[in-house]
Amino acid sequence: MKKIKFVLSFIVLFAVVATIMGCEATLEAAETTYVTIDINPSVELIVSSNDKVIEANALNEDAEVLLSGLDLIGMDLDEAVDLIIATSIELGYISVDEDVETYVSVSAISCDEALQERIKASVKEHINNAFESRGMLGRSQEKTFDQAFIDEAASFGVTPEFLFLAYKVVELSDDYTLEQAVLLTDEEVFAIIELARAENQGLVLELRNQFFEDRDAKFEYYLPQIQSLEAQIVVVEEQIAALEETEDQTELLATLDDLNAQLVALQDEFHGEVAALREQFQAERSVYQNQFAQERQQRREQHQEQVNQFQQEMEDRCDRMQDRVDEFQGNANDNGSTSSNKS
């Protein structure tokens, strides 16, 4: 009897723990907003209810380049948005031409509609402020879905925003087809995405942290040397400016040329080292992502094979049952005919 009570207690405890974990995942999902910012780089920011960036993901190759040098996790949303705009300008994704206006598309999806609208409005405002503070033509706008995507969402009886999330579920989890994902509730979708991302992003996050650590080491090594050369150049330039017109500038000019040459060489070396780190990070991440995609595809194929096998077994059973029914009916008919003949 004691053993039975112990087992029952353990089952109850396990159920309580599982429920708590499930509730925590659902609560975290409910407080999360998925923001997309489309310039040409398409960036996804996962934002907490207190406007902190939890995660930043590249949605295309240009965004991979954009995010490779940025550490947005833990940043306030306004700072992250401004940094994305600033870096996009530096990399040439946003034109500095005074006659060209840049449009940045924004979308936000959350379980909490009020939170969703607040975050979206906040992101759009930060983008507009980023352009205005730089005296540039540019503004945010609501992201729109193409007609084919809208039609596909309508065919499932869901909104385009929910279909977008359903595709995320299929992308991140092996347990759901698109047809199954669109039947989930908002809370279930966000909880699945939250858990899947936590499981899948571990190594990528580790690679990213290593990249930033190595990059910071390069900064610590090169920047003092660069700043020292820049300071020496300023001193020599001041010395040249202080000379009388009749005084010989040859030696100082030669020194200045030498310092400038050293500075350019050091800057090139520094930029080359950082670029090499970035390429290494992108290559390692690409290898991991490809490996993960292959493993996921293999699991899906295995799952589909099991489903097909199960369906085949069920069809075989149905066929055997039908054969038995036909045989039984045939025997019954034969017996009926025999009885009639005897009569």
TrEMBL record:
This is Anti-sigma factor RsgI-like middle domain-containing protein. InterPro entries: RsgI_M. Residues 33-160 form the Anti-sigma factor RsgI-like middle domain. It comes from the Bacteria. Residues 293-343 are annotated as: Disordered. The lineage of its organism: Bacteria, Bacillati, Mycoplasmatota, Mollicutes, Acholeplasmatales. Residues 1-29 form the signal peptide. Keywords: Signal. It comes from Mariniplasma anaerobium.
